[in-house]
Amino acid sequence: MIQSDTLYKIVDSLSDGYVVCNLDTKETTLAKIRKSVVYKKGNILIGDIVTLDDQNNINDVVERKNFLLRPRIANIDSVLILMSVKEPNYSTYLIDKFLLTVNVSNVEPIVVFTKIDLLTCDEEQNFKKQVEYYESIGYKVFLTSNKNEHSKEELIKYIKNKTICVMGQTGVGKSSLLNTFSNDLNFTEGSYDMKNLNRGKHITKKVIFRKFFDGFIADTPGFSSFELEFDKQTIATNFPGFHKYLHYCKFRDCLHLTCDAKICKIKDEFSKDEIYKLHYENYLKILSEVKENKKWK
Ligand SMILES: Nc1nc2c(ncn2[C@@H]2O[C@H](COP(=O)(O)OP(=O)(O)O)[C@@H](O)[C@H]2O)c(=O)[nH]1
Ligand SMILES: [Mg+2]
Ligand SMILES: [Zn+2]
Q1: Which of 74, 122, 139, 147 could covalently link to 47 via disulfide, CB atoms 3.0 to 4.6 Å apart?
Q2: Does 240 sit in the ligand 1 pocket, CB within 6 Å?
Q3: Residue 41 sits in which domain range?
C-alpha cells in the first residue's frame, strides 16, 4: 500500500537495498526492494524516483525522464564529460563518442577538461583549437585544475541546483573534481597509475549520488571502451556538430559519406579545416565500429 505520495530518489545501492532521499525533506533512509516491482519495472537505476510503502519497501517507480546505460543512471539534467588533457592524454575520439551517447539520451552534455596544469605552452596551442571547436558547435566547455581553485567557480555556478553525473575514463579526475566542489561530498579518489588500476585500488566502483546545493551530483566508475547500443542512422543524426547541417542533406537517412555537396552538407562542412577533418575521422571510426556489431546488420 502506498503510505503517501512522498517521492524518494535512489541515491546509493547497498547489498540489501537502496539508500533513498526524500525529495521534500532531503533526509535519507534505507529502502528495500519488493521482487514484484523489479519484475514489473526492470532493474532499478540509481537516480530513479520511487514511492515507498509503510514498511519502506519500494512500491513504485516513476517513469524516467531519461537514462544512460554507461554509467547506469536515471533522471539527470546534465552530464559532465570529463577528459584530462594529460595522464591520460585527451582523446577527441572519446569525447565525440561520449557526446554522441549523451545526445542520444537527450541529456545536456558539458565538456570538462581536467588537469590543465599539466599542459606545456607548446601543447596549449593545439589544445585551445579543440576547446574552440567544441564551443563553436554549441557545447559548454570548462577547463579545471586541482592546482587552481578558481578554475572551478564558473562550473559550480553553472551546475549547482541541477542533478548532475560525471562520465569519463578512470583516472581523469572525476572523484577529485567533485570533492573540490564541497568538503561534504567525499567521493573515493584513486591515482593515475595503471598498476593500481589493474588491482582495482581506490577506484570508484559504483554510481552514487550526493546532495549538492538544491540538486544532486553523482560520481561514477570510469570506462573508456564501450560498444554502442544504437544503429548507424542514430549516429549520423546525433554525432556532435552535425545537428545544424542535418536539414541541408538531401536525404533524411543520409550517412554523410558522399562528397557531393548538393547531396550532403555535412561531408562538405567537415572538410573545411584540419580540426573538422579530425572530427569527421572520429565519426567514420565510430560508424565503422557499429558495422562490426552483429546486433545491427
Ligand atoms: N596534476 C593534476 N592531477 C590531478 C588533477 N585532478 C586529479 N588529479 C589526479 O588524478 C588521479 C586520479 O584522480 P581521480 O579523481 O581518482 O580520478 P577518477 O578515476 O576519474 O575518479 C589522482 O592521482 C589525482 O590526484 C588535476 O587537476 N591536476
Ligand atoms: Mg573515481
Ligand atoms: Zn549528409
Answers
A1: 74
A2: no
A3: 8-64
Assess whether 72 and 213 both reside in one domain. yes
Cell of 239: 554525432
**Count of domains forming the chain:** 3
Give yes or no: residues 12 and 47 share one domain: yes
Q: Does the pTM exceed 0.90?
A: yes
Q: Which atom of ligand 1 is nearest to the CA of 144?
A: 27
- CA–centroid distance, residue 257 to ligand 2 (Å): 38
CATH number for the domain harbouring residue 32: 2.40.50.140
In angstroms, the Cα distances linking 261 to 221, 235, 287 are 42, 20, 20
Our mutation pick for probing the ligand 1 site, out of 166, 192, 201, 223, counting the most ligand atoms within 8 A of Cβ, is: 192
Residues 78, 131: one domain? Answer: yes
One digit per residue, the tens of pLDDT, for the chain of length 297 reads: 444 589 999 999 998 899 999 999 999 999 998 877 776 666 899 999 999 999 999 988 999 999 998 999 999 999 999 999 999 999 999 999 999 999 999 999 999 999 999 999 999 999 999 999 999 999 999 999 999 989 999 999 999 999 999 999 999 999 999 999 988 898 888 877 655 555 445 678 899 999 999 999 999 998 877 888 889 999 999 999 999 999 999 999 999 999 898 999 999 999 989 999 999 999 999 999 985 555 544
- From the CB of 88, is ligand 1 less than 6 Å away? no
152 plus 202 within the same structural domain: yes
Asked if residue 39 lies in contact with residue 45, where contact means CB atoms within 8 angstroms, the answer is no
The bound ligand whose nearest atom lies closest to the alpha carbon of 245 is 3
CB-ligand 1 contact for 114 (6 Å cutoff): yes
| First CA to last CA distance, the chain | 46
